[in-house]
Amino acid sequence: MRRIAIAVAASTLSLPLAGCGALGGSDGGSSATPSKGNDVKVGLLLPETANTRYDKFDAPIFKSKVAELTDKQGVVEYANAGASATKQAEQMQQMIDDKMDVIVLDAVDAHAIAEQVRKARTAGISVIAYDRLAEGPIDAYISFDNELVGEVQGRSLLEAVGSTGSPKIVMMNGSSTDPNAKQFKEGALAQLTGKVTIAKSYDTKDWKPEIAQAQMTEAIAAIGRDGIAGVYAANDGMAGGVIKALHAAGVTKLPPITGQDAELDAVQRILADEQYMSVYKSYPTEAENAAEMAVAKVQGKDIQFDSLTRDKVNSPTAKNIPAQLVPVVALTKSNIKDTVVADGIYKTSEICTASYKTACAAAGLK
Question: Which pLDDT tens digit goes with each residue over 259-278?
């Protein structure tokens, strides 16, 4: 996998693809004949609702971009699986039956969905893996540099806890059915191994915060509430569960806790010194570029498609899948204004509710 360096400012998050000669203009250099006009039918399958990003950002941004690219003639059929692999398989089968031109798939279970991916290929429907790399004959993949996400989390946690005396930490990893979770873990372990003691490590089914809370309760009982120097939580939802468990155990000064996704609750927790950091991923960049990939693939715009998929990744069932890996930012109290606010993800008024007025003022958010 080609690695992409971490972005250090919000302005670097958007990839400069629109400025490439192959984009936003004619495909004069391509021998491909567009197989479809603007009347494209795009299926969008997202995995769950526990993480608020999918319904709040990914789906509406994706739909809006498809409308823009097709002069409002393109149709997006959207379905969310609610963390059920069985339900997602049914949703994808329905999209195959409805003869979508292309399906953009964020898999609940990357292995289990492979059969539907193969059925789509047999039906002549392209499948683009979104955010999580599904198995089967995938035509392209777009996500963030997942190992780098874990590295950023691990490095941030190490900076917070130090390595003197090999402090004890708890690792709250994502779902074992999500290939991204494995990459996050590998990236984090690359930073943490040999420098801290991983006292407890869990894979959290379906990324559920309530399961993370129960697991953290177990870890506290085993290690002792005062023996935990830090917690690697793979995303913000689980970080919330971890914090609830620590509060329930009577911990008043919370250890550094990581996260991912820059959810609104997490941004507020960071301001209030309850969560140490999150990882901000530019959902507009990912969703808009996925829409461009999907439309270009259907319309036979090979140069445009190739420009959007300059990286290569491997899955357990396919090699050298054309891909785009989007960079990420470590979100801390110091750069909230320059990231999620500057990018229009949240308004200051959404973040700085009554309970957080003082913390916002201290962080320069007005």
Answer: 999 999 999 999 999 999 99
In terms of Cα–Cα distance, which of 178, 139, 172, 353 is closest to 267? 353
**Per the structure block, which two tokens stand in for 195?**
């420098």
> Model's pTM, two decimal places?
0.77
Angstrom CA distances, 76 to 43, 98, 138, 341, stand at: 6, 12, 19, 28
**Contact 46/83 with Cβ under 8 angstroms?**
no
Report the interhelical angle of 146-161 vs 179-192 (nearest 10°). 40
Closest CA to 111 of 82, 81, 88: 88
Q: Give the residues across from 15 on adjacent strands.
A: none
Residue 143, strand partner residues: 325
pLDDT digits (tens, 9 = 90+) for 302-354: 999 999 999 999 999 999 999 999 989 999 999 999 999 998 899 999 999 99
Tell me how far apart the alpha carbons of residues 163 and 75 are, in angstroms, rounded to a whole number: 53
Category of 124 on φ-ψ map: left (φ > 0), alpha (ψ -120 to 50) or beta:
left
Sheet containing strand 230-233, strands side by side: 197-203, 168-173, 230-233
